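Margin note: ligand = zinc ion.
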Amino acid sequence: MTPLREELLDILVCPLPQCRQRLDQRDDQLVCTGCGRRYRIEENWPVLIPEEAQPPLDGKD
Ligand SMILES: [Zn+2]
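Resulting structure:
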């Protein structure tokens, strides 16, 4: 995987209006620190679309 630039990660937040928390990169996904949804990264660009996010992992990781 290619890490996203830190400046980019610094400004990214969860796209859910009721969440808006910071995102952590984990492998090729961004994991929301608030709701736990996972957003994929395509071509080094995060796909921050709630409808395409994967649900939280529920503790297993
Ligand atoms: Zn969230």
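The longest helix spans residues 6-11.
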